[in-house]
Every structure is written in C-alpha cells, then in structure tokens.
C-alpha cells in the first residue's frame, strides 16, 4: 500500500485554498488541482509499504510523537517549487508554527527507520496545484504578490495520521489508517 504521514487542515482553510485554486484557474494556468478532501500537509512520504510493516511504523510514530504538545499553525502566502520562474508545484506556506512542524517531521523521520524512505529535507507547505505546462508564469507572479499577506487561517495541530493513497485514473483517493494524538 502507498502511504504517507500527514496533518489535516480545517474546512475553513481548505475552503480558502479553493479560492486560491479559482484564482489560478481564472488566469488560465493548466494545472491538476488538489481536491478539497485531499488537501493536507505531508510530514513524510513513505511510499509502498507492506501491511506487515505498518505495525513497526505505527510503533515508531508513537515513540516520535511522545511528549509533543499540540501547537498552532497559520497558513499564509503562496509560492512555487522549484521556483516562481520554473513552477511545477504551487503551494501555500506555513507561517506560524513552522518550527514546531519541522521538529515534528524531524522526530518522525528519525524514528521511522524501517528502511530508507524519502530523505528530502522537510519544507512545510500545502500543495494546491501541479502545473501541466509552464504557461502564464507572469500571472503566477501576480497571484503570489496578491496572496503574499493573505491568511488562509489557523489550526491547532493535535494529531498526525498515517494515510493510504490509492492512485486512480481520476486522481488519488486518500484513506486514514492510523491516528496519533499529540499531548
């Protein structure tokens, strides 16, 4: 099964991120937009794992989150990977709570040692769209300026989840597998 570890966003934040998607659509950018129910913050992508490995990963995450208190994050601003000049992914930024989120992701990364998972450094963000073509880059720079100070809202991070991602022709379907509460 294809899996990842994530933090969920509130309905309010998801709705505001849909407004950003509408602004991107309005300028004619060709993109694959993340469905509302799939919007989240990925702490760690695990990829394909066996069912038998899920218990080991579960124990590792339980150990990683032990002693971590719930914390607040705010979502504010927009950017692109790898850059605004060559965008492939459009994302919303985590502002307040970024350090706590990085610490949480790093602790999970240290404990989940079943095998070599994705070792890219964690950069807190919420993927909003994946561009199909690099058209309308100037419009993206304008959107980035328009949303530079836009606040998508705040949430309290009180749990993390292991989620399964089933890839289908219509896009991924995510299912919650295991919840881990923070203190």
From TrEMBL:
InterPro entries, A to Z: Cyclic_Pdiesterase, Phosphoesterase_HXTX, RNA_CPDase
Source taxon at top rank: Archaea
Gene3D superfamilies linked to this entry: Cyclic phosphodiesterase (3.90.1140.10)
Reactions catalysed: a 3'-end 2',3'-cyclophospho-ribonucleotide-RNA + H2O = a 3'-end 2'-phospho-ribonucleotide-RNA + H(+)
Alphabetically ordered keywords of this record: Hydrolase
Motif annotated as HXTX 1, chain positions: 40-43
Name the UniProt record assigns to this protein: RNA 2',3'-cyclic phosphodiesterase
GO molecular function annotation: 2',3'-cyclic-nucleotide 3'-phosphodiesterase activity; RNA 2',3'-cyclic 3'-phosphodiesterase activity
The Phosphoesterase HXTX domain, residue ranges: 7-91, 95-174
Organism: Candidatus Naiadarchaeum limnaeum
Active site (UniProt): 40, 125
Function: Hydrolyzes RNA 2',3'-cyclic phosphodiester to an RNA 2'-phosphomonoester.
């Amino acid at each position: 099964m294809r899996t990842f570890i994530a933090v969920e966003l509130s309905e309010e934040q998801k709705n505001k991120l849909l407004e950003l998607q509408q602004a991107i659509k309005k300028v004619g950018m060709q993109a694959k937009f993340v469905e509302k129910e799939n919007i989240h913050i990925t702490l760690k992508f695990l990829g394909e794992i066996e069912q038998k490995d899920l218990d080991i990963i579960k124990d590792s995450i339980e150990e990683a989150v032990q002693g971590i208190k719930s914390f607040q994050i705010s979502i504010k601003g927009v950017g692109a990977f790898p850059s605004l000049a060559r965008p492939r992914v459009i994302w919303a930024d985590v502002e307040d709570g970024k350090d706590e989120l990085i610490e949480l992701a790093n602790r999970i990364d240290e404990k989940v040692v079943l095998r070599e998972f994705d070792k890219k450094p964690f950069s807190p963000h919420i993927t909003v769209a994946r561009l199909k073509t690099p058209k309308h880059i100037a419009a993206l720079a304008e959107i980035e300026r328009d949303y530079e100070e836009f606040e998508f809202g705040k949430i309290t991070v009180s749990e993390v989840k292991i989620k399964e991602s089933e890839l289908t022709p219509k896009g991924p379907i995510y299912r919650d597998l295991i919840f881990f509460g923070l203190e």
